[in-house]
Design goal:
It is a single chain. The protein is elongated, with a radius of gyration of 28 Å. The chain has an 8-stranded mixed sheet with strand order 13-12-14-15-16-17-18-19, with helices on both faces. Strands 3-2-1-4-5-6-7 form a 7-stranded parallel sheet. It has a 4-stranded parallel sheet with strand order 9-8-10-11, sandwiched between helices. Helix 20 (510-522) crosses helix 21 (531-541). 30% of the residues lie in helices and 18% in strands. It is an alpha/beta fold and 555 residues long. It has helices at residues 36-46, 71-79, 86-89, 137-140, 156-165, 179-187, 191-197, 218-221, 225-232, 256-259, 261-264, 277-283, 293-300, 320-327, 337-347, 365-377, 442-447, 460-473, 505-508, 510-522, 531-541, and strands at residues 27-33, 56-62, 83-85, 96-99, 113-115, 150-153, 173-175, 205-210, 238-243, 286-289, 305-307, 404-412, 415-422, 432-436, 450-453, 479-485, 488-493, 498-502, 547-552. The chain has 21 helices and 19 strands.
Length: 555
C-alpha cells in the first residue's frame, strides 16, 4: 500500500468578483489568454497562488485573434469559469493583467501587464513575427511602445533570445523558472498514485504518445500511430496513452476521442484536454513525441523519450528545443515498436542539459511569480503557499480497459510464451480473437473464437447454464469460460467438454485460449477434445501448472 499523500482532486482558485464589490484594500486581477492551453496555465498554475488571499479577486478574459479561439470558451465551460470578451474585461479597471498570450491590446486596460509563457520556453517562429513567439516586439510591446511590467522567463536561453528580439523589454524581465515543471517536480512523489489511477500495475510499462499541432507534428507525420501501437504492443507488458494537442479539438476534423473511439473503448488511455497530461508524464515509462512542450517537459523530468517527428524548420537552430531535437533518439514507425521502446527504457533519460531552457532558481517559480504579482498590485503578500500536487487524473469517460484481444503462443522450453494484443476492430490478424462478454462492440463479440466472463464471478451451480447460453448466442465461439471463484474458472467447449480449473489470476484469461489452441492443433477432423489429454496439455503450457478440479468429456 502506498504511503504517499493523496493528491488533491480539484485546484484551489479564487472566485471571480465584480469590481463594484471590491473594497479599498482589494485588488482585481484579470487573467487573459487567447487559447484553451493559455487559459489552462493561468487557471491551474497561476490562480491557485493567490486563491488564499481574500483581498484579491480574479476575472478571466479572452484575447481575440487566434484561429483556435473557439476552444477557449469550451475550456471555460468545462472548468466552470466566466470568460469575458476582452472588450468587456478591459473596462473593469483591473489592478493587473496576467497573461500567457502576450498581445498589444492588453495595454488598453491601463494596468500593469505580467507576461509568462504557456509552453516549455520560447522556441517557435511564425511568419508574421520578427522573433520567436512570446518574445517578439509585435506581441509584447504596446501601441506606444509599452513593455510588460514583469516578463517571466523560464531560463537563461529565453533571456538571451529576448535581448535579440526585443531588447527594450529586458529591464523588466526575470528568469523565474517554469511553473509547470516546478509543479511536476513537487508532484513526482505521487507517481505510483497516478499509475494506479490509470490502471497501470507494477508489471506494466506505460507508453505515452504526445503530439503538437502544426504541420510537423507527430499526428501529421504518423497519422495512425496510436491505433498502430495499441494493436502491436503486447497488452500484458504495455499500456498505451495518447495526448493530442488541445488545438486538435478545434476545427472541422473529428474530435480526437471520437475518431479513436473503438480504441479508447478497448484500452487506449486518453485524458480530458484541460488537465491530466502532467499526471501521464509522471506515470510514464516512455514517451513518443515530437517538438511539442509535452515531449520536452517529459524529457526534462527524466522520462525516456523517442522522437517520431520534429519541426526544425519552425524554430531557430540555436534554441534549446532545436538542440534537444538533434540529440534525442528517434522512433521509427515502420520498425517493430516494442524493441525500440524497451531499448529506450533501458537507456534511460535523454542526455541533455535542460538548465538553459528551464532554470530552477530559489525559492521556485511559483513563489517568484507570486512575489511579482503582489509587488505590482501594491499589497503586502500574505504567507506564500506551496502549490498543491497535481490532482489524481481520470481518463475520458469513453475509456474502458481492454475487453477484446488477439492471442497466440510460441512453444518454449518452459512451456509457452503468450502474446496478447488489443483487437479494436474485427479484422483478421495473428492468433485467435478473444473477448470478454462486457465488450461493448458486438462485432468483436460475434467474431470471437473465445468468450470469457471473468469480470465478477458466476455461481458454480449456474455456470454450465451461463456457458451454454454464451455459446448459443455466439455461433463463432468455440470455447466459453466463466469465473466461478477468486482463482477458478469453468470452461465449456462447443463439443460438450467441460473443465473446472484453478490457477493464478494472471493465467485465467489465458487458459481458455490454450484450450482453443489445442482444438486448433487437432484440426477439424479430430474426434473431439479429450478432457484428460487437455489437462496434460495445459499442465505443459503453464508454469506453475493449473490445478484441475473437475473434467468431463463430451457426452
Amino acid at each position: 500500500m502506498s504511503t504517499s499523500t493523496p493528491a488533491p482532486q480539484h485546484p484551489s482558485t479564487p472566485a471571480p468578483q465584480h469590481p463594484s464589490t471590491l473594497g479599498p484594500s482589494e485588488r482585481l486581477l484579470i487573467l487573459a489568454g487567447r487559447t484553451s492551453q493559455a487559459l489552462a496555465r493561468l487557471y491551474f498554475d497561476v490562480a491557485p497562488l493567490i486563491a488564499h488571499d481574500p483581498r484579491i479577486a480574479v476575472a478571466y478574459a479572452l484575447i481575440p485573434g487566434s484561429r483556435f479561439e473557439p476552444g477557449a470558451p469550451v475550456f471555460a465551460r468545462r472548468v466552470g469559469i466566466d470568460l469575458h470578451p476582452w472588450d468587456t474585461a478591459k473596462v473593469l479597471r483591473p489592478n493587473l493583467i496576467v497573461t500567457s498570450s502576450p498581445d498589444p491590446c492588453l495595454y488598453e486596460a491601463g494596468a500593469p501587464v505580467l507576461s509568462l509563457p504557456h509552453g516549455a520556453g520560447h522556441n517557435r517562429l511564425r511568419a508574421e513575427l520578427s522573433g520567436v513567439s512570446g518574445l517578439s516586439p509585435e506581441q509584447i510591446l504596446g501601441p506606444q511602445g509599452q513593455v510588460p511590467s514583469f516578463l517571466a522567463l523560464p531560463g537563461p536561453a529565453a533571456a538571451k533570445r529576448l535581448a535579440i528580439d526585443c531588447p527594450t523589454a529586458t529591464g523588466n524581465a526575470e528568469v523565474i523558472g517554469d511553473l509547470c515543471l516546478d509543479r511536476l517536480r513537487r508532484s513526482a512523489h505521487l507517481r505510483e498514485d497516478y499509475r494506479r489511477a490509470f490502471g497501470v500495475g507494477p508489471d506494466r510499462r506505460l507508453v505515452v504518445i504526445s503530439s503538437s499541432w502544426d504541420r510537423s507534428a507527430l499526428t501529421r507525420k504518423s497519422t495512425t500511430l496510436p491505433e498502430q501501437l495499441l494493436g502491436e504492443l503486447p497488452m500484458d507488458e504495455f499500456k498505451l496513452a495518447f495526448v493530442p494537442h488541445p488545438n486538435d479539438e478545434v476545427g472541422e476534423a473529428p474530435h480526437p476521442v471520437e475518431s479513436l473511439r473503438p480504441y479508447v473503448d478497448n484500452g487506449l488511455i486518453m485524458i480530458p484536454p484541460e488537465e491530466g497530461w502532467r499526471a501521464l508524464v509522471l506515470a510514464a515509462d516512455c514517451l513518443i513525441g515530437d517538438h511539442g512542450s509535452v515531449t520536452f517537459t517529459a524529457a526534462a523530468m527524466g522520462v525516456p523519450v523517442l522522437l517520431a517527428s520534429f519541426g526544425f524548420a519552425g524554430m531557430p537552430p540555436d534554441v534549446p528545443l532545436a538542440r534537444f531535437g538533434r540529440i534525442a533518439p528517434r522512433f521509427e514507425p515502420n520498425a517493430p515498436a516494442a524493441p525500440q521502446i524497451r531499448a529506450a527504457i533501458e537507456a534511460g533519460p535523454v542526455g541533455f542539459d535542460f538548465a538553459d531552457a528551464l532554470a530552477e532558481p530559489e525559492p521556485g517559480a511559483p513563489f517568484l511569480l507570486a512575489e511579482a504579482v503582489y509587488r505590482l498590485i501594491g499589497l503586502d503578500a500574505l504567507e506564500l503557499v506551496e502549490p498543491e500536487p497535481l490532482p489524481l487524473p481520470a481518463p475520458v469517460p469513453e475509456h474502458r480497459d481492454t475487453r477484446a484481444w488477439r492471442c497466440r503462443t510460441r512453444p518454449t522450453t518452459a512451456g509457452a510464451a503468450w502474446e496478447r494484443r488489443p483487437a479494436s476492430v474485427p479484422e483478421p490478424g495473428e492468433g485467435h480473437l478473444a473477448a470478454d462478454v462486457t465488450c461493448r462492440d458486438g462485432r468483436l463479440r460475434s467474431a470471437a473464437n473465445v468468450l470469457v466472463r471473468h469480470r465478477g464471478t458466476v455461481d458454480p451451480a449456474m455456470a454450465r447454464q451461463t456457458l451454454r447460453a454464451m455459446l448459443e448466442a455466439h455461433p463463432v465461439c468455440t470455447v466459453a469460460s466463466a469465473r466461478v471463484g477468486a482463482g477458478e474458472v469453468m470452461i465449456a467447449v462447443r463439443d460438450g467438454t467441460v473443465l473446472r480449473v484453478g490457477a493464478r489470476p494472471a493465467q485465467l484469461d489465458l487458459i481458455p485460449s490454450a484450450v482453443y489452441e489445442r482444438l486448433a492443433e487437432q484440426g477439424s477432423d479430430a474426434p473431439g477434445l479429450s478432457a484428460a489429454e487437455t489437462l496434460v496439455y495445459l499442465q505443459r503450457r503453464f508454469e506453475p501448472g493449473p490445478a484441475f478440479i473437475t473434467a468431463e468429456d463430451a457426452a
